[in-house]
Amino acid sequence: MHGVDANAPPTKGPDAGSRFRGFHEVSIPDTGQRIACAPGENILRAMERLNLRLIPVGCRGGGCGVCRIRVRCGKYVTRRMSRIHVSAADEAAGIALACCLMPQGDLEIEVLGSGTSNPMSTVNPLQG
User: Fold this and answer.
1) Cβ distance 111 to 35 under 8 Å?
2) By C-alpha distance, which of 25, 5, 42, 9 is closest to 105?
3) Is 47:36 a contact under the CB 8 Å cutoff?
């Protein structure tokens, strides 16, 4: 299985569709991948913890816009994001930055960000 944390066994927990005990399942239907995201953990961090490269990585702090995603369904909260990259209208349409989004239950997302010519590569903001 892709994106499954070995420490998060299947369960029938509070999220009816979740297969990860104590974790929220973040699915990316376009790729068939699933990420186990711990409560309070942002999606980008969960992806990196699992050594996956499903979402482009940039500054990790909400300022570069590289990790833009659209939430198709599910509950979540976000921390402050740059309005240059996510407008109020975008946010109302479910667009957010993966580094700033913490699931509150299972989510289905679409990856929008492509900060490099290869959207699956990692961007190092310290390189010129």
Assistant:
1) no
2) 25
3) no
CATH match for 24-111 among 3.10.20.30, 2.60.220.30, 3.30.499.10, 3.40.50.300: 3.10.20.30
Please tell me the predicted confidence (pLDDT) of residue 103: 97
User: Smallest Cα–Cα separation from 94: which of 106, 80, 82, 112?
Assistant: 112
DSSP lists the bridge partners of residue 37 as: 24
**Token pair listed for 121:** 């590569």
Alpha-carbon span 60 to 76, nearest angstrom: 18
Q: Is this model's pTM higher than 0.85 or not? A: no
Please, are residues 111 and 32 in contact by the beta-carbon 8 Å criterion?
Answer: no
CA distance 67 to 97: 5
Q: How many CA atoms lie within 13 A of 128 on its CB side?
A: 0
User: β-strand 101-103 against 107-111: which pairing, if any?
Assistant: unpaired
Q: Which segments of the chain have a pLDDT < 70?
A: 1-20, 114-128
